[in-house]
Amino acid sequence: MTGLAPHQRQHAALMDAIYRRQVHIYDATRKYYLFGRDRLIRQLDVPEAGRVLEIGCGTGRNLAQIARAWPGSRLYGIDISQQMLRTAQAKLGKGARLGLGDATNFDPAALLGTAQFDRVVISFALSMIPQWQHAIAHAAGLLAPGGALHMVDFHDGAGLPGPLRRALMRWLARFHVSPRLDLAEVAQAIAGQRGLLMHVHQGGFGYYRQVTLSRPR
């Protein structure tokens, strides 16, 4: 785990421990409750030969979907879990450039060979990143002119029946997942600091929240 600080190596070890036994069934099981990510992919509107980075790329499932939805995209991904990166690389082959890094401070030029991206995606990863606010700020700083940061993650589930909501939150906690209820507020502050535009979409029953920050040309 070269290049990671001690606290980052600790988080990386936790992620590897969580996913070591799940990595081969991850995509099959998560499709039943990671709602909103395919909607995000459909809305990316990647420009021709656009550079798309996924932060927390996991198994590479989303990058593979992006390749199909937006042919010609140049794909990049980072993750803190070596377990996930090995699976992603096997799935994507030479179709994506991947690197091991922490979402809050990775060097994209050193890891991926480019410093800016036309689209940055963070899909159900913020809820597992301890310093998630820093991850958003760092991602926003990687946008090329006309670029956009697309984020989707769990919200409060306020519209769900009480027992179902409580069961969901207990299940998420087992995997060290903490919904970021102030995602929109944090994103709005970052947008104001960096001159970005923001759009928010809330999924049904408050299950997920999708936030997009875009940089004018």
Summarize the SSE layout with pairings:
Blueprint: H1 6-19, H2 26-30, H3 37-42, E1 51-55, H4 61-69, E2 74-79, H5 82-92, E3 96-100, H6 108-112, E4 117-123, H7 132-140, E5 143-154, H8 162-174, H9 183-194, E6 197-202, E7 208-214
Parallel strand pairs: 1-2, 1-4, 2-3, 4-5
Antiparallel strand pairs: 5-7, 6-7
Helix pairs in contact: 7-9
Overview of the molecule:
The protein is α/β, with parallel strands linked by helices and 217 residues long. Helix content is 39%, strand content 22%. It is built from 9 helices and 7 strands, in the order H-H-H-E-H-E-H-E-H-E-H-E-H-H-E-E. The protein has a 7-stranded mixed beta sheet with strand order 3-2-1-4-5-7-6, with helices on both faces. Strand 1 (51-55), helix 4 (61-69) and strand 2 (74-79) form a beta-alpha-beta unit. The longest helix has 14 residues, at 6-19. The protein starts with 5 loop residues before the first helix and ends with a strand.
Q: Compute the average pLDDT.
A: 90
Based on CA inertia axes, which overall geometry fits?
globular
* Low-pLDDT runs: none
Specify Rg, calculated over alpha carbons: 16 Å
Q: How far from one another are the termini?
A: 37 Å
SS field, number of helical segments? 9
Helix-strand category:
alpha/beta
* Neighbour order of strands in the largest sheet: 3-2-1-4-5-7-6
Instruction: Return the string of H and E elements.
Output: HHHEHEHEHEHEHHEE
Instruction: Give the tally of β-strands.
Output: 7
Strand content: 15-25%
What helical percentage do the residues reach? Answer: 25-40%
Largest sheet: 7 strands, mixed
